[in-house]
Amino acid sequence: MERPLHFIEHIIEEDLTSGFSKENLRFRFPPEPNGYLHIGHVKAICLNFNLGERYNAPVNLRFDDTNPAKEEQQFVDAIKENIAWLGYQWDLECYASDYFDQLYLWAQDLISKGLAYVDSQNSETIAAQKGTPTLQGTHSPFRDRSISENQTLFEEMKVGKHPEGSHVLRAKIDMAASNMLLRDPVMYRILYKTHHRTGDQWCIYPLYDWTHGESDYIEQVSHSLCSLEFKPHRDLYEWFLEALAPLDKIAPKQREFARMNLSYTVTSKRKLMELIQEGVVQDWDDPRMPTIAGLRRRGYTPTSLRNFVDAAGVAKRDNVIDMSLLEYSVREDLNLKAPRVMAVLDPVKLTISNYPEGKEEYLDGEINPEQPELGFRKVPFSKYLLIEREDFKEEANRKFFRLTIDKEVRLKNGYIIKGESVVKDASGKITEIICTYDPESKSGSGSESSMRKVKGTLHWVSEAHALSAEVRLYDRLFNVPAPDQDKDVDFKSHVNPESLTVIKAFVEPSLKTAKPFDNLQFQRLGYFVVDPDSTEKELVFNKTVGLRDTWAKQNN
């Protein structure tokens, strides 16, 4: 059954019913190249590109590169890579800097119409004159400069004749407007920074509100979709377009949707950068980060992120989506796709006393029960194995369904074994478990013994064949649902000290050919992914998510 339309789709449908041509639909995703995209951007990406797919309409990728003080080419490259990895392809690759010449000419036009002026006050004074929501603003003493003087000063600003902060260009609107954004907003500021695309060609740079709608108009974007914090900006968006009239093309329409707020995380680029600079995380692609690059390195898949956004929906009001929904999405996707393998994270030696010394055999292990057509992999078996330390207790009650003395369990894909005795070191720590096996009980052999039912099944690896690996066990970066809610408390004080644990583990030899970003299920342990730090000498795995939502149980 097809899902119901969300409110943005209703808006588009109403426009089409009112006579807007479907051929003129065009959408855009307009990131700032001043950091890596995060989970909140995934919603905006999916919304715009999914609308493009639904209506067979083009979607532009436009970089809002108007602040060279914070923007870098590496961020441009990462954004393009992230969007392509999510499975989307844009129509036109655009940059606000492509329009600097046209924006400058339009700004001159506003000056000539008496709708813009050069203000020579500093930013603090301008801000103070804006007034408050209940107190109207006051006019700048430079508001009534002559058109010719404004034109001269603006040209001088452009060619670098004035220092930073000495002048700005402001729109002349209404200092008594109830919407404070209409109180003579700044359009241009002087900035002597090298731009990653235009170099040192420009000494003035346009601000977002001036750039946004005009860029949409140039590209003929029909529906400019923004998050809710830009709703007050809509009046200014429309004022600028009307001020440039007469325009001979279709005016774009700005509409707003609720941004993606996720529990147990922060998505402010400034705060994410702070985490990097203070060494809380390693970089933008740290698997604990909510960035697309971090989620990918953690083992999240494009399908899981797109399904998550679809499940969260498109809302008109801000809300907080629980992290467990994101984890559920990746768990559901990987259950269908991830090959099953065996790994032991906290090993203890298990010796099968009645298994022949030197004998090796290869057992059949299912690759993925959700994809039976993939068949089986070969898993080496021998006298000496490694199992999880927590899977054995020397003494246990009847509710312990794993290995103990005088109790039988099945080895995954293999035989039934029975605990017999243990070997301990001087401190009393168990260093070896001695057991026996039933030679007739091999899984799938068809023998009567193989059909015997035992309550416990353990994963294992053959000691002689196992590969040593580094395993990084990741947990949520913050231990409270809203780490940046209290403005009086440093959000970093809520960092989970156990968000990363690095251990040495052992994995089955079939993983020798594993490649970075391969998703896997370590049976009985969870979903993992091969990290790009892996080398020929040692594989590195990141934990993506457990097989079930244990976090919810811990916090109930």
Description:
With 556 residues, the protein is an alpha/beta fold. The protein has 13 helices and 29 strands. Helix 2 links the parallel strand 1 and strand 2. Helix 7 (208-219) crosses helix 8. The protein is elongated, with a radius of gyration of 31 Å. The mean pLDDT is 95.
Described by strand count, sense and barrel closure, the largest sheet is: 7 strands, mixed
Cα distance spanning the termini? 35 Å
- The outline comes out as elongated
Per CATH, the architecture of the largest domain is 3-Layer(aba) Sandwich
Q: What is the CATH T-level topology of the largest domain?
A: Rossmann fold
Q: What value does the average pLDDT take?
A: 95
Overall helicity = 25-40%
Which stretches of 5+ consecutive residues score pLDDT under 50?
A: none
How many separate domains make up the residues? 3
Strand order of the largest sheet: 12-27-28-29-25-26-13
State the main characteristics.
3 domains, Rossmann fold, 556 residues, Ribosomal Protein L25, Chain P, alpha/beta, 7-stranded mixed sheet, 29 strands, single chain
What is shown here, in short?
With 556 residues, the chain is of the alpha/beta class. The chain contains 13 helices and 29 strands.
Chain-wise SSE layout:
Layout lengths: L6 H11 L9 E3 L9 H16 L4 E5 L9 H13 L7 E3 L4 H13 L3 E4 L3 H7 L17 H12 L9 E4 L14 E5 L13 E3 L1 H12 L3 E5 L6 H10 L9 E5 L2 E3 L6 H9 L14 H7 L3 H11 L6 E3 L1 H15 L2 E2 L1 E2 L2 E6 L8 E6 L9 E6 L2 E5 L3 E2 L9 E2 L3 E4 L4 E9 L5 E8 L19 E2 L2 E2 L4 E8 L25 E8 L11 E4 L3 E5 L8 E7 L4 H5 L2
Parallel strand pairs: 1-2, 2-3, 8-9, 10-11, 12-27, 14-22, 18-19, 20-23, 25-29
Antiparallel strand pairs: 4-5, 5-6, 6-7, 13-26, 14-17, 15-16, 17-24, 20-21, 21-22, 25-26, 27-28, 28-29
Helix pairs in contact: 2-11, 7-8, 11-12
